[in-house]
Amino acid sequence: MKKENILNSVDCIFDINNRYVLLIKRGKEPYKNDWALPGGIQEPFESLSKALLRLIRNRLGLDIEIDDKHYPNTINFKELDYKSDLHQLRTYDSGTDPRGGNTTVFSVQLNINKTQLEKLLKAGNFVDKIKLFSLKDLPKLAFDHENFIDDYYKNLKSYDENAENYDVTKYEHPSVTTDMAVFSIQDERLKVLLVKRKAWPFKDHWALPGGFVQMDENLDETAKRELEEETGVKDVYLEQLYSFGEPKRDPRTRVITVSYFALIKTEGIKLRAATDVSEVGWFSVGDLPKLAFDHDKILSYAIQRLKWKLEYTTVAFSLLSKKFTLTDLQVVYEAVFEKKFDKRNFRKKILTLNLLKEEGLMEGQANRPPMMYSFKCKLGQIVKMV
Q1: How far apart are CA 41 and CA 55, in angstroms?
Q2: What does the pLDDT read at residue 103?
Q3: Which of 42, 77, 292, 344 has its CA 20 to 30 A from that of 365?
Q4: Nearest to 153 by CA among 12, 13, 49
Q5: What Cα–Cα distance (Å) separates residue 245 from each residue in 101, 178, 251, 342?
Q6: Does residue 357 contact residue 376 with C-beta atoms inside 8 Å?
Q7: pLDDT at 4
Q8: Which of 241, 256, 234 is nearest to 302 (CA)?
Q9: What is the spatial distance between Cα 336 and Cα 300, in angstroms, rounded to a whole number?
Q10: At what angle are helices 295-312 and 326-337 packed, to 10 degrees?
Q11: Cβ distance 368 to 361 under 8 Å?
C-alpha cells in the first residue's frame, strides 16, 4: 500500500508596531477568497526557515534573507534596510486544514513605517490581495489562524524601546498648522481678516491667515508669527478656538490645524501682505468670497463662539476705544448677532451690571451730548451680558 504524504506547513505573524497584522487573501482552495496569515506547504527535505523564506518571497514579493545560524533567527528586509528577530512560536495540529499535517507558526515584530512596508508588498503566488489589518478590525480568518494570532498576543513580550533605539519613522507624521479668525467692527458690521494665497494649493483664493508649526515653536508662537508675517498685525490677544483634523482637508498632506480667534480695534493698524500671500483685507462676514481649505467651517465655528463669548463674558469691550458711548457698545452686539436690540432695555441691562465708569459727556456735541464710559472690570470676565 502506498503511504500518503503528510503535508506540513509554515505560517508567519507579521506584527507591525504592535497595531497591525499582515494578512493575505487566498487565491486557491481550501478557503479561497478568505483572509489568512502568509504561509504555505513545506516541501520535502526543506527546513522550516527555508520554507518560510521561499514563501515570503513568493507570496509577498519581499526581498529578504534569513540567518538561521543562531537563535533567535534573524530576518533581514533588504529593501527596508531593516533586521528583526524571527521567532518560532509553536507547532499546531492543523485540524481545520483538509489536507492534514501540522503547521509551525513564526512571528516577526516590525517597528517600521507602515506605509513604507505597504509600498513594497506585491501579491504573488496564489495571493489575490495583501493588507495590513488593525488588531481591532481583523476579518474572519481561514484555518485556525485566529487562534494563532490570539495565542501570540496573549504571550507577547513588550517591545524593547528606549531613547537610543526608538524609530521615529515607524508612525506617519501629520503636519500641524495654526489658522486665525481675527474679527473687528467696521462701519457697524462684523468683519474678518482674510489673506489671498499666492501659491498652490488654492492659489488666488482667500483664506484665514495661518501656516505650519515649526519644530522649535509652540502653537501660540506659530499663530502670532504667521499672523504678523502674512498681515502685519501683531501684539494682539489670540485665544485658542478648536482643532480641525479631517483626513483630506488639505490636498498637500495630512494636516491638522489648531484654530485661534481674536477681537481687535483697527485704529492704527496697517495691513501688509507678505510671505506667501498677495493681498490682505477685511471682509464682512455676511459677504465672504469662496474660502480655501475648510476655512468656511472654521470661520463659522469662530463666529458661533464669538456670539457665546459676547453673551456670557465682557470680551466685547476689547473692540471699543478706552472711552465709548453705550451706543458704541450696542453697535458691537448688533453687528455680531446681526439683529437690533431695544435701546432702552439694552442700556438698562448694561448699566445694572456695574461694569462701567462714567467719564463725562462727549465733547463737541452741542445738543444733549452722550455720556462717555470706560470699562472698569477684567476683560473676559464671565458675566451674563445679554
Answers
A1: 9
A2: 92
A3: 344
A4: 13
A5: 50, 12, 13, 41
A6: yes
A7: 53
A8: 241
A9: 12
A10: 140
A11: no
Q: Which three cell numbers stand for residue 72?
A: 533567535
How many angstroms separate the CA atoms of 147 and 87, rounded? 17
Q: What is the enclosing helix (H) or strand (E) of 50?
A: helix 48-60
Cell numbers found for residue 3: 503511504
Name the band, by pLDDT with cuts 50, 70 and 90, for residue 5: low
How far is the C-alpha of 229 from the C-alpha of 215, rounded, in Å? 18
Show the cell assigned to 349: 441691562
CB atoms within 10 A of CB 188: 11
- Grid cell 492704527 in the structure block, residue: 268
Q: pLDDT tens digits for 144-199?
A: 999 999 999 888 765 566 676 666 776 778 999 999 999 999 999 999 999 999 99
The predicted model gives 63-79 an average pLDDT of 87
Distance CA 88, CA 83 (A): 16
Q: Which residue has the cell 537610543?
A: 164
Three-class SS of residue 47?
Answer: coil
CA dihedral 32, 35, 38, 42 (to 10 degrees): -40
Name residue 278's amino acid.
S
Cell 470661520 belongs to which residue? Answer: 299
- CA angle (345, 349, 350) in 5-degree steps: 120
Give dist(CA 319, CA 331) in Å, integer: 10
> What are the phi and psi torsion angles at 370 (to 5°)?
-75, 155
Name the residue with cell 492543523: 94
Number of neighbouring beta carbons within 10 Å of residue 213: 21
Burial class (CB in 10 A: 0-12, 13-18, 19+), 305: middle
Catalytic machinery residues:
279
pTM metric for this prediction: 0.68
CB atoms inside a 10 Å sphere around CB 22: 21
Q: What is the 3-state secondary structure (H, E, C) of 162-212?
A: CCCCCCCCCCCCCEEEEEEEEEEEECCEEEEEEEEECCCCCCCCEECCEEE
Hey, what domains does the chain have and what are their CATH numbers? Answer: 9-154 (3.90.79.10), 173-304 (3.90.79.10), 313-386 (1.10.10.10)
